[in-house]
Amino acid sequence: MAVIQPTRPGVATGGGDVRRILVPVDPEGYSGAALAQAVSLCTAMTGQIRVVHVRIFDPPLRSCGRFYPQPSQQATDLLEQAVTTAWAGGARASGVVVEAQRTQVAQAISAAARDWNAGLIVMGHRPRREITKMLCGSVADLVMREVECPVQVVRPR
Prior knowledge:
- By secondary structure, the protein is an alpha/beta fold.
- The chain has one domain (16-154): Rossmann fold (3-Layer(aba) Sandwich).
- The protein is built from five helices and six strands.
- It has helices at residues 32-45, 72-88, 105-116, 130-136, 139-146; strands at residues 3-4, 20-25, 48-57, 92-101, 120-124, 151-154.
- A six-stranded mixed sheet has the order 1-4-3-2-5-6, sandwiched between helices.
- Helix 3 (105-116) crosses helix 5.
- The longest helix is centred in the middle third of the chain and has 17 residues, at 72-88.
- It starts with a strand and ends with a strand.
């Protein structure tokens, strides 16, 4: 697990304060608009952003160990870039890389939100055809069902 700490102390908040905004980021770039929205909200409310990247692994095959399609350094670089973007926008931000099985991404995001006591999740939405959404579901839909805090879904620009 890679953690990037904020340069300044975080906002002292109680349970589920909406000024604590969690933003999941992805390597495909669908989260860019969500990060921009979170930075805008954060600076307006004097809040704090936690950027989360889920590094996916596939289950082991007969004691071969986990297979990670994304190298660890690439995951850390993606996280650092997102945190730097948030800082450049005037927001206080920190980040964390978490690992999850491909089918457990929504649960990993939900757990990160609970662990950090997020008051709001702002996440991107990958454009898909309706039949694909119906058959496979979406990470955003699953996150909305699992967390107690509000979830704002932002479409990519």
